[in-house]
């Protein structure tokens, strides 16, 4: 990734918002609705969105990467940000969340409420308007459309599994299996956070072989699974001053890696204690004490080391025709992170 890419990416934001709200549809009767689109949250995840241009720079020689190609890659990164915003606005409503990244959730803001459901649809629709305006003449346009629609459906299936596994007010640890947990993570997080940006870059670089995309998928889904397990660990053991958030997975009855792993190593007496405490605001410290007794930090760090070794083997096996740097750049950013 070029050192100027983050600046180019941020600079493009206002251009795209102006394009969506002032230049795309110009019917004056839509002014209020389009202004709403301008006001909506775009909390850019530079790690996620810059993965498109970062991967493209590894896949295409610098002499062949035109300024227009760079701009389109940055735009596709913004489309991934819009997709994530669509998911998160809706997810916060379904989870009855109060804050997101230190700010009130969009639906909690004054004069928004459940109108946020339609706002999430506007965010999703904006993706395809931008792709059409900027990529329609490119040979990879249909590939991008299919990639975004397929990834959206996969993520929605993962969200459905998540909602069914831990319904509000219903605590049933029998639902919390490692198989179900890994399915949720794969479909709800790994496809859109890890496979989508690299797959988009591959299509933009002219790599449309199903075999090569499957090879990349093997590696990236492993990475995405570990990334979510890290998040689960940091929710309990991370420093809020570093992570920027106070963890709530225990009191929110989340099906996370810590609880699922703990269920596999605890005694019947410890399980009974967990069942009486999990999902309750007044028993968080008791659950954490139980985790410490089970040496969950040690189990996590062992898992991290094992996962990194697995990743190296997957890269050697599946990235024979793809630059290893595409995957190693991801790995450097996520392994041993503390926020």
Automatic annotation (TrEMBL):
Pathway: Isoprenoid biosynthesis; farnesyl diphosphate biosynthesis; farnesyl diphosphate from geranyl diphosphate and isopentenyl diphosphate: step 1/1; Isoprenoid biosynthesis; geranyl diphosphate biosynthesis; geranyl diphosphate from dimethylallyl diphosphate and isopentenyl diphosphate: step 1/1. GO terms for biological process: farnesyl diphosphate biosynthetic process. The keyword Metal-binding applies. InterPro entries: FPS1-like (IPR039702), Isoprenoid_synthase_dom_sf (IPR008949), Polyprenyl_synt (IPR000092), Polyprenyl_synt_CS (IPR033749). Keywords: Lipid biosynthesis, Lipid metabolism, Magnesium, Metal-binding, Transferase. Gene3D superfamilies: Farnesyl Diphosphate Synthase (1.10.600.10). This is Farnesyl pyrophosphate synthase. It comes from Oncorhynchus kisutch (Coho salmon).
